[in-house]
Amino acid sequence: MRHSTRSQPTPRWLIALVLIALVLQTTWKLLAPVPKAHMQDLDAPPSLEWLRLTTLGDPITMASFWMLWLQSFDDQAGVVVPFQKINFHHLSTWLERILALDPQSEYPLLAALRVYGFVPDPDKQRLMIDFIHRAFLADPTHRWSWLAFAALQARHRLGDHQRARLFLDDLEKNIRTQNLPFWIRGLRARILTEQHELEGAKAVIGGLMLHETVNERQKQAMETWLEKLEEQAKKDLGRR
C-alpha cells in the first residue's frame, strides 16, 4: 500500500502572521526617522613625540598611513566634507607632523600646494604656502622648488606680492642665484614691475641678460621689456 507524499497545506493563520509581520516591518522603516550624518571636524594632531611612539621603528610607513588617513578625511560615513570646511590650522599642523616623521617625503608639500592650496579661500591658501615656507627653511637644499612654486601661487592666485617677495628673498639667501631657474628670477622682475618699482625691475632684468644661460630669444624679450619699463618710467615722471 503506497503512502501519499504530498505536504500538508500551510495553515492560514501562519500565512496571516507572516503577512502582518511584513507589513509592520515595512511600516516601521517608512515611519522611522532618517539617520542624520554629522560632519566630524579635524582635530589637532597628537604631539610629534606621541606619533613617533606609534611608528614602532618604521616612521616612513606610518607617515604614509597618516597622510592617506588625512586625505581621506573629507569622505566620512554618510557625508562628504568639502575641503573648505576643514580646520586648516589643524591641517597645517598635521602636515608638519607627518613631514617630520618622514623628512624625505614630498607628499605633504604636494598636498599643501596642489590639493588643499586650491581651496577658494585666500586665508586657507596662505596657511598652506606658509607651511611650505617653514618646511623650506628647515631644509632649503631639497625643498627650494616647492617654495618657488609657493611664491608663484602667492603672486598669481593671491595677488600677495609681499609674501611672494619674502619667499623669493629666502630663496636667494639660501640657494645660489645661479642655480635657480630662469623663471624664478624673472618672477621678481614681474613683481617689482607690478609694484611700480621700475628701477629695481630694470636692475633685475639687466642682471638676467648677462647670465650665460640666456638664449637670444630670451634676450630680445627682455630688451623689449626694458623698453616698456623706460616708457612707463617717462609716463610716471610726466604725471608728477
Brief digest:
This protein is mainly α and 240 residues long.
| Alpha-carbon distance between the two ends | 127 Å
Which overall shape is indicated by the principal axes computed on the Cα atoms?
A: elongated
Total number of strands: 2
Evaluate the radius of gyration. 31 Å
Q: What is the percentage of strand-forming residues?
A: under 5%
Low-confidence sequence ranges: 76-80
Average pLDDT confidence is 83
Q: Helicity level, as a percent range?
A: 55-70%
Going across the major beta sheet, what is the strand order?
1-2
**Count of discrete alpha- or pi-helical segments spanning 4 or more residues:** 11
Structural class of the secondary elements? Answer: mainly alpha
Can you write the helix and strand succession as a string? HHHEEHHHHHHHH
Can you describe what's shown?
Helix 6 runs antiparallel to helix 7. Helix content is 67%, strand content 2%. The chain has helices at residues 12-31, 48-54, 59-71, 88-101, 107-115, 122-138, 140-156, 161-174, 182-194, 198-209, 216-239, and strands at residues 75-76, 79-80. A hairpin with a 2-residue loop joins strand 1 (75-76) and strand 2 (79-80). The chain has 240 residues and is mainly alpha-helical. The radius of gyration is 31 Å and the shape is elongated. Mean pLDDT is 83; it is low at 76-80.
